[in-house]
Amino acid sequence: MRIEKRLALPVVIILLAGLGLVFPTRAQGQGSAWESSSKKGKAKGSSTVVAREIAPGPAPTAASVPLISPNEYIVGEADLLRISVWKEPELSQNVVVRPDGKISLPLMSEVKVSGLTPSQIQAMVTARLKAYIVDPQVTVTVNDVRSKNAFITGEVTRPGAYPLLMPTNVLQLIARAGGFTPFATRRGIFLLREVNGKQVRIRFPYKDVIRGQKDDQNIELRPGDTVVVP
């Protein structure tokens, strides 16, 4: 019995010591795990805030993008314009620029628009409408470009008229027309241009241009030019 009592006391001490060692270790492990979780939460939260700050806005839709930039396009004869007056449906309409460069609008007889940008026409119409409407809100857009066309005919996929909304050379016009048909004669391509009232024929060396040998002969087109692909 005495031996059992003597052995029991050290065993109890060892067990208590063991428990004392285990409990702090678990508590410490739990604390570090909580801190790690907290840090992860903070990191996640901070990354979310940054994502919100740098997130791009909604992509522009077709309706929000103007058809033609008013600062670049000059209105000419035969162009189709849309004149919109806010809350005035009777004054809003589509008009075609006449050969004399003018358009007709309600409340004003004629307006000279040829040679002006849409923003300039908008300012002019707004100023004239102030005599009849309080604070008129006018918008002018070009719905159809008809005055600045170049033409391509012959052995291309889509011959016809193409508006010159930006600088365009002969090679680019051929590309816009869908390229050549299998029957095209690339050596015989030429450009027809009116110079001083006379029609001039200008040869286009297609093979040299695509090789980069005669870039100066890849002529920038003018309104009324016609590219012929035999």
Nearest-angstrom radius of gyration?
A: 39 Å
- Poorly predicted regions are 1-5, 19-68
CATH-defined fold name of the largest domain: Outer membrane lipoprotein wza fold like
Distance between the termini: 123 Å
- N-to-C series of helices and strands: HEEEEHEEEHEEHE
Mean pLDDT: 78
Please indicate the percent range of residues in DSSP E strands (runs of 2 or more): 15-25%
Q: What best-fitting shape do the alpha-carbon axes yield? A: elongated
CATH class of the largest domain: Alpha Beta
The largest sheet is: 5 strands, mixed
Number of domains: 3
Number of helices: 4
Strand order of the largest sheet: 7-6-10-8-9
Tell me what the CATH architecture of the largest domain is: Roll
Q: Which structural class do the helices and strands define? A: alpha+beta
CATH H level of the largest domain: which superfamily?
Answer: Outer membrane lipoprotein wza domain like
Number of strands: 10
